[in-house]
Amino acid sequence: MISKKMEKIMNEQINKEMYSAYFYLSMATDLREKYFDGFAHFFEHQAQEEMEHAMKFYEYVNEQGGRIILEAIEKPQTSFKDVEEIFDLSLKHEKFVTQSINDIYALAVKENDFASMQMLDWFIKEQIEEEGNMDKALHMVRMAAKAPHAMMMLDAQFGKRE
Ligand SMILES: [Fe+2]
Ligand SMILES: [Fe+2]
Predict the structure, then answer these.
(1) What spacing in Å lies between the alpha carbon of 157 and ligand 1's midpoint?
(2) 7-19 pLDDT tens trace
(3) Residue 12 Cα, ligand 1 centroid: separation in angstroms?
(4) Which ligand ends up closest to the CA of 92?
(5) Among all ligands shown, which has an atom nearest to the Cα of 57?
(6) In this predicted model, what pLDDT tens digit does every residue of 67-114 receive, in sequence order?
(7) Which of 73, 78, 74, 89 lies closest to 32, judged by CA?
């Protein structure tokens, strides 16, 4: 069983993960329009992962006898200045999600909710990876931004993400 407070904060996290999927899909669409198919592929994959994150919370709350309440998903930004802005916003967004996961963890600690802590451990590790990946990507995009040729090569490289 989880507390009402934990149920509420996890429901909010489901919404944040769904929003993340929307946000990345919106970026992918903008990138497709600009023929950056590799980067678009990367963000489509990213969006899928965010849906999986939402489902992990969905399943956990159900398993723990909680009730899922699905709220409206905020409309994401629909157009972006350039590839650099997209990765910059992505890194900022991942930092925001990390903070959000940390807040849930802090509540679990406060409530001696060891089951939730164990479930959240996966997300703590995942966020280290997510932030690291975006940070690295942003650095590469910033370097490539100075030369169209380099940007095209980077786009092709991002298209290879499994
Ligand atoms: Fe996520
Ligand atoms: Fe993420």
Answers:
(1) 23
(2) 999 999 999 999 9
(3) 13
(4) 2
(5) 1
(6) 999 999 999 999 999 999 999 999 999 999 999 999 999 999 999 999
(7) 78
Q: Provide the domain limits for residue 24.
A: 4-158
pTM: 0.96
Q: How far is the CA of 38 from the centre of ligand 1 (A)?
A: 21
Ligand sitting nearest the alpha carbon of 17: 1
Closest ligand relative to 18 C-alpha? 1
3-state DSSP of 27-78: HHHHHHHCCCHHHHHHHHHHHHHHHHHHHHHHHHHHHCCCCCCCCCCCCCCC
Write the pLDDT tens digit of every residue in 19-78: 999 999 999 999 999 999 999 999 999 999 999 999 999 999 999 999 999 999 999 999
What six digits make up the tokens of 89? 């916003």
Q: Hunting for tokens 């089951």 — which residue is that?
A: 115
Q: How far is the CA of 20 from the centre of ligand 1 (A)?
A: 7
- CATH no. for residue 146? 1.20.1260.10
Number of domains into which the chain is organized: 1
CB 124 within 8 A of CB 101: yes
